[in-house]
Design goal:
Blueprint (H helix, E strand, L loop, with lengths): L2 H11 L5 E6 L4 E4 L1 H7 L10 H5 L17 H7 L4 E8 L5 E10 L6 E8 L7 H9 L9 H17 L3 E9 L2 H28 L4 E6 L2 E7 L6 H8 L3 E3 L2 E3 L3 E9 L6 H17 L4 E4 L2 H23 L2 E10 L5 E12 L3 E3 L1 H10 L3 H22 L5 E5 L2 H5 L3 H12 L6 E6 L10 H11 L2 E7 L6 H6 L4 E4 L1 H4 L6 H16 L3 E4 L5 H10 L3 E2 L10 H5 L9
Parallel strand pairs: 11-12, 14-16, 16-17, 17-18, 18-19, 19-20, 20-21
Antiparallel strand pairs: 1-2, 1-5, 3-4, 4-5, 6-8, 6-11, 7-8, 9-10, 13-14, 13-21, 14-15
Helix pairs in contact: 1-6, 6-9, 12-14, 14-15
């Protein structure tokens, strides 16, 4: 018996309540887990290549029948290089009999090897197979789950190592499965998953392996030197999914890991490395393919460390705020200040918000971070309102994830009550994508926030997904023109036309406008002439620490 193969699979395979074995088409046993050997009544030490042949009974065996040369259907099926599923009968060395329900399939590497999974057909006739199947398969798609996948991967890798074969693993994220669930309910969501699973089964064929890892995440493994081209796989899985009257064109991200089975790499490692590549594809946005490399793994490890440091900073209060003024373009007065969070990591020094804000959203830290920013900004605004005559409003950016999780309006009401801030002094900035996000009941949330007395602004307007119908429907007080349209003024005629259109739209809807990213006096002068009320940017005033803002205000009670 191949003890090296047995050593590879025996550890993980003992978790399953089933027998697992490797064999040839002629019944030569190459490897087996302890449960299968126990059912045959053979110890690991006594098992040999001829164990299966010796124990297998004829297909139509009857008590007293000694014609053991007439082998069962399953062995004849294997010799035709076909898969088998059904009952098989065995005689143990002590003379007792056992019937096993077996599923045996080719390994798929032209080695002539087969992988078998067996259950005791009479251990619990009514429930045994169903319970095992339910515990090891995904209910929505019928694909193997991660536990069964890793068991089978270990077996496949063991077989490939014997022939120095190769395996290509793909971890596949289907981004829009969640949107299908929210818009069409669980039946539409399940139907979409089943369509994706069917596509993967077709790619896997008889020799590949497909599984669902959870959510919109799937796994595919193909053996041989000519695996599926990732680009073709991306195209096939990205084909529109029609469920009822809904059509979804999925965004698909694929991570690829190519493994030459020359070492003792386990199935869990294969899944992990393909997942690292898939995570990189996800981070890039849209549909795409990434191939695993050690550089990717090192970058992910660095990202995990940065996430850990950020979590410590949020809990330990190591962040601080600065405030960028919004200037009245006519009078030059500071009307509002936008709250900006900054992080100086003790080990790394300053970390850009462009890095740690998305990281906080990915790591589930944005609620804690956003709550701290809102509380600190409101406390600062209250201090200014009490001490200074011309205290500006304070604007706080709100992540879409904050609106999706928990009761954000209740959180704002609680902060206003605790700090004693006049709600009119608080402006909440949201991105325009929130308006069309069907996972957020924006109308209800906005009505509650307006009911508290706060005002709403749409940040970075013009770069997102808003439609005019959404813009007219929601009670927004201010639009902030994205810097992308301001930076090329006054020379770019297209940018000028867009800015004019936004100003006309906003004023027609009774909204005020702030132009972001003003860098020059010429830009400020042009925007002033176009009727833009407020401006923001380094050309007007850079972000200031709290004491810098206070120095620009007029005290209520003298110096």
């Amino acid at each position: 018996m191949r003890l090296d193969l047995l050593a590879t699979i025996v550890g993980p395979a003992t978790r399953l309540p089933c027998g697992i074995f490797l064999c040839t088409a002629h019944g030569e046993l190459l490897a087996a887990n302890p449960r299968f050997l126990a059912w045959l009544g053979v110890s690991t030490e006594d098992a040999g290549a001829d164990t299966l042949v010796e124990c297998t009974l004829p297909a139509r065996w009857e008590p007293g029948d000694s014609r053991t040369h007439r082998r069962q259907t399953w062995l004849r099926t294997l010799r035709d290089d076909q898969a088998f599923s059904g009952e098989s009968h065995y005689r143990r060395p002590d003379g007792s009999l056992i019937t096993l329900h077996q599923s045996v399939a080719p390994v798929g590497d032209d080695s002539g090897h087969f992988i078998g999974v067996a259950l005791d057909a009479f251990a619990a006739p009514a429930t045994n197979e169903n319970v095992w199947y339910a515990a090891h398969h995904d209910a929505a798609t019928g694909l193997p789950n991660q536990q069964l996948l890793e068991e089978r991967l270990d077996l496949r890798l063991a077989a490939l190592r014997a022939h120095r074969g190769t395996l290509t693993a793909y971890v596949i994220h289907v981004r829009d499965s969640g949107r299908l669930r929210r818009s069409g309910g669980v039946p539409a969501w399940a139907a979409g998953l089943q369509i994706t699973a069917a596509r993967l089964r077709q790619v896997a064929g008889t020799h590949g392996m497909a599984a669902r890892l959870g959510g919109g995440e799937f796994f595919l493994a193909l053996t041989g030197d000519d695996p599926a081209e990732p680009a073709a796989l991306l195209t096939g899985l990205g084909e529109p999914i029609r469920v009822g009257d809904q059509v979804i064109r999925p965004e698909v991200c694929i991570g690829v890991y190519r493994h030459a089975a020359l070492d003792d790499t386990a199935g869990t490692d294969v899944v992990h490395r393909a997942s690292i590549a898939a995570a990189d594809a996800l981070a890039a946005g849209g549909s795409g393919v990434r191939t695993y490399s050690r550089r990717l793994q090192e970058a992910l490890s660095e990202r995990w460390e940065l996430t850990r440091d950020l979590a410590r900073a949020v809990s330990a209060g190591q962040l601080h705020l600065v405030f960028q003024p919004e200037i009245d373009l006519q009078s030059g007065r500071i009307v509002a200040v936008e709250t900006l969070v900054r992080w100086r990591c003790p080990r790394r020094g300053p970390v850009s918000p462009a890095v740690f804000i998305p990281l906080a959203e990915e790591a589930g830290l944005i609620d804690a971070l956003g709550s701290w920013v809102l509380d600190a900004a409101c406390r600062f605004a209250r201090q200014m309102d009490v001490r200074y005559r011309d205290a500006p409003r304070v604007a706080v950016n709100v992540s879409p994830l904050q609106l999706r999780s928990g009761d954000f309006a209740a959180e704002v009401a609680d902060v206003l009550a605790r700090t004693g801030l006049d709600p009119a002094q608080l402006e909440l900035e949201i991105t325009e994508g929130v308006l069309v996000d069907d996972s957020v009941d924006a109308g209800a949330i906005f009505e509650r926030l307006i009911g508290l007395g706060t005002s709403l602004a749409i940040d970075d307007f013009g770069t997102g997904y808003s439609s005019l119908s959404y813009l007219a429907r929601f009670p927004v007080a201010r639009l902030k023109i994205d810097r992308a349209f301001v930076k090329d003024l006054p020379d770019d005629t297209r940018a000028l036309a867009i800015v004019r259109a936004i100003l006309g739209l906003a004023h027609g809807l009774g909204m005020h406008v702030t132009a972001e990213g003003i860098e020059t006096d010429e830009q400020a002068q042009l925007l002033r002439e176009l009727g833009c009320e407020l401006g923001q940017g380094f050309g007007l005033m850079k972000p200031l620490a709290p004491e810098g803002i206070r120095a620009l205000l007029t005290p209520r009670y003298g110096a």
